[in-house]
Amino acid sequence: MSVDEMLENHIHESWNDLFNNTMKEKLEEIFQKLEEKYGNLPNPPYQPTGKAIFNVFTMNISKIKVVILGQDPYPTEGYAMGYAFAVPEGKEMQKSLKNIEEVIKKKVIKKESDLANHLEPEWKTLKYWIEGGVFLLNTALTVEKNNAGSSFHLKLWEEFTKEVIKYIISKKHPYLCIWMLWGKDKKKGAQRFEEDIKKYIKDIEEISTKDGKNYILKAPHPAVPNNSFRECGYKNFLDANEILLGEKEIIKW
Question: Tell me, what's the pLDDT at 191?
Fold first, then answer.
């Protein structure tokens, strides 16, 4: 499947300026490198494949309130669906999403009525987040099967992801956008993501930023083995809704 076929009638028109001819050429180079590494196989040893790679771009960019940056898709076959942390219906929640749901249930949800979404099997697809304006972007759009964090894929998509971040910032300005950066640990991972974003926005600051336009909320990655996300990750959800309260458009986590 060519890049044009993957994107045709799939991405929202608000992304058209990003997926111009120059970007399509860069994407063709990415898929050429994937073919060189794995061969032209009907079922390549990476995932997702086809249009699903670009599922996150079906969202209208004007609807984005929160951007959550994940690392790469789930490496277990059948789990990657083009949205960071989301799991298809009929599949078990992975460790990252289990930890996310745990902190939301225990420390974020205030009303029993808001718990209803979490009792539905489809919550794990994160459709409620997506419909509410949460953009679930992985820094690599593909991953080698059974090899999470495969450096080849992370490097392959790096420049593309930076262009996506730059594009979101340019299109959202001067409107509010919240960036959730979940690093591998409290310093290194989050700092790496923060520096990537600062290449495109000089004055983006912490949650205390006074201009009310862009906010960075940091936390350990939900899958870290010491469970530090459970200790402080919930604050990201609470802080995001506190910021969005002024817009009267909070997220039903």
Answer: 55
